[in-house]
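[step 3/7] fold_predict: job queued, chain A
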Amino acid sequence: MQTTINYITTLCNIPSPTGFTTTIMDYVQKEVESFGYQATRTNKGGLLVTVKGSDDERHRIVTAHLDTLGAMVRAIKPDGRIKMDLVGGFVYNAIEGENCTIHVTKNGRAISGTILMHQTSVHVYRDAGTAERNQTNMEIRLDEKVQTADETRALGIEVGDFISFDPRVLVTESGFIKSRHLDDKVSAAILLKLLKTYKENNTQLPHTTHFYFSAFEEVGHGANSSLSEKAVEYLAVDMGAMGDDQATDEYTVSICVKDGSGPYHYELRQHLVSLAEINKIPYKLDIYPYYGSDASAALRAGAEVKHALLGAGIESSHSYERTHTDSVEATERLVDAYLKSPLI
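[step 4/7] structure written:
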């Protein structure tokens, strides 16, 4: 698993909030081309890698998204601090106290800061612990000598500059991986590892397969375009959601039967279950109530495909996330088994 873990660490450390993904796409494109593949950038900013299979008439699509949660500069406050606008579906509580970077469009600088409540000091504000965490109260304290809006603007910062969060990647001796943005850089790392392995081993897949690294999943319209008309199956490799009433854990691959978009294709789901059982891959079936994937976005856009969703179990999704190498390995094994199996 070390190659996959190395990819997870590298990808998590490259800032890529939705709308600001050029750098990470450049990295992935350079990596897959170093394996010997051709990679194509879509007009929307995604990356497609097509692996020709024995059957070139009926194709597969497998996706992982490289865009992450983030923010943008909403306004510069009179005291020089930054008001944010969130990018992606998460709450302010999840980023309170986090270090961050403002990516300055005007001059290319990367300026560090910390996301805090305005009334953070308990020595000054009686409601420091009880005030609502919202756009009005949350702000970024810049690591620069600024006390006015004009001084902040003099750094080049303006409305619309992207803000990324410190991932804080950590791999423990017990096999846990802790980081922001494991959703969905775990899956992207798995696809990179499989592409590398297939090329090294001269693996012939049974069907031409399009590996799609998408750039707008966190806002709902990621890999829903630039799809081959020959595609008949679509597998989104994303994250398994954990919490109350959830079967998903950090040690198995999670196969989604239904999310906020509705049920996934029953026969394709059962095919994945069969592959897991035949190959003795530990798995869980689960429903993710407040969730949508690139596969469901593709169906809403009119794709005529059988669609499925699976992924590693991710604890505390859209916050400081965690998974275990057991779950990463199970997910990688099931994706590999699926890509080597015939269409249903």
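[step 5/7] annotate
The helical segments are 2-12, 22-35, 149-154, 182-200, 266-278, 294-300, 325-339.
Residues 96 and 253 are 30 Å apart (CA to CA).
exit 0
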